[in-house]
Write a structure and sequence with these properties.
This protein is an alpha+beta fold. About 30% of the residues lie in helices and about 20% in strands.
């Protein structure tokens, strides 16, 4: 919850409920007739938080037909409505977006329509400083209730000051997006280099040896959460979850800890150069992975993350990581996966049975030299992103206390 501090002269404290209409959208209609010839976007939770314009202005290709909806009493929300996810993972609750045009909205999204005395972009930037985890209902599935959103306190300066704050934060935010764009461009270089050296890995067109991953690597799932340890002595260790293992990199922003047996620390320890692969999730994320570089001392991994320790006399981890990002690998895991609802998963046997053309070590080492140059460029790009993030956070902190625009 926002702490009420002393405000500059001319500012005042209010709650979101005081200065905005708080509501929610509608459940997605069932039936093709509601989407055929649609005029206005239907915004879902997955659309909120996507990289976009500054600030994130949401539009989507998913459209609803106004005429077909007349009997359904669907609310058409105006342009610049602030959208806040009402439920989901703790980090997802902190996604925010403004409508880029009038649109229909999912019932899983809270809507905040500011009154005339509040600039929508000022409200948007302020909302980024509110950690939803501080106001979410405490249960197994974090959720935000509309009264809790309405009760959030917001510092309000006069409109000219709001305009100045928006101007500064918009510029800082655009720099964040540009740094992220540069990182995405850098990410495209490595797959292009891989394809240049190894082609599309079609076994019938390749003279390379075809091997099974389990024959050139030791593959192990990690520790299981919620085990009954029956009063045995335990130690606390940091561990990696699926959320930490992204496609080609580690997200270490939130590292959790787990109580395990002392023997588990050694059993599930990670070595520099281990390739980490995810068990499942969305079908397009199957088999995604990254290389562990010993970033956190004593770190282990959860059972939904596979640790792949390669035989470096035959296979380089950097080659395997790049291989996992190819269409060849993604196609294998997509077809091998077990599916339920919108999720998919693979087991350790399927990971071990992944077969691929194995180039000579000389060719892999040549690729490694290019990877090292790419790593340096990505490292510089990542540091630039972190700097832009820190700058934006510092400016935001000062903006809503009056320090950024004070005399």
């Amino acid at each position: 919850m926002t702490k009420r501090h002393k405000l500059p002269q001319g500012w005042r404290w209010a709650t979101l409920g005081d200065i905005a209409e708080i509501g929610a959208g509608n459940s997605a209609p069932q039936g093709l007739e509601y989407f055929a010839g649609g005029e206005h976007p239907f915004v879902r939770t997955r659309d909120v938080g996507r990289e976009g314009k500054t600030p994130c202005l949401v539009d989507t290709a998913d459209r609803l037909n106004d005429h077909a909806l007349q009997s359904r009493h669907f609310r058409l929300w105006p342009e610049s409505t602030l959208l806040i996810p009402k439920s989901g993972a703790s980090t997802f609750l902190n996604h925010r977006a403004l409508l880029g045009r009038s649109a229909y909205v999912s019932s899983h999204l809270a809507t905040v329509v500011a009154e005339a005395s509040v600039l929508p972009e000022y409200l948007y930037f302020f909302s980024l400083t509110v950690d939803a985890r501080d106001i979410a209902a405490e249960n197994d599935y974090p959720s935000l209730r509309l009264p809790d959103i309405a009760a959030v306190a917001i510092p309000l300066p006069p409109l000219p000051t709001q305009e100045r704050i928006v101007e500064i934060l918009r510029l800082a935010d655009s720099i964040r997006h540009k740094r992220a764009d540069a990182r995405r461009l850098a990410d495209q270089i490595l797959p292009a280099t891989f394809n240049d050296l190894f082609g599309d890995l079609n076994p019938s067109d390749s003279g390379a040896e075809l091997v099974r991953l389990g024959d050139v690597a030791d593959i192990r799932a990690g520790v299981t959460k919620g085990r009954r340890l029956q009063g045995r002595e335990t130690v606390v260790a940091p561990y990696l979850r699926v959320a930490n293992v992204q496609d080609g990199f580690l997200d270490l922003e939130e590292i959790r800890q787990i109580a395990v047996l002392p023997s588990d620390v050694q059993k599930f320890h990670l070595d520099d150069g281990d390739v980490l692969m995810t068990e499942g999730g969305d079908p397009d994320k199957l088999g995604r992975g990254c290389v562990w570089r010993g970033q956190i001392e004593g770190c282990i991994h959860q059972n939904h993350v596979f640790r792949v320790r390669v035989n470096r006399l035959r296979l380089l981890p950097e080659f395997l990581l790049a291989l996992l990002r190819t269409r060849y690998a993604k196609r294998y895991f997509f077809h091998a996966a077990k599916r339920s609802s919108n999720l998919a998963s693979v087991n350790s046997t399927q990971v071990k049975n992944f077969r691929f053309p194995l180039p000579p070590m000389e060719t892999q080492r040549k690729f490694l030299l290019r990877v090292e140059r790419w790593d340096k460029a990505v490292g510089q790009s990542t540091e630039a992103i972190h700097l832009a993030e820190r700058t934006f956070a510092a400016l935001s902190s000062r903006a809503f206390t009056g320090q950024l625009t004070g005399e």
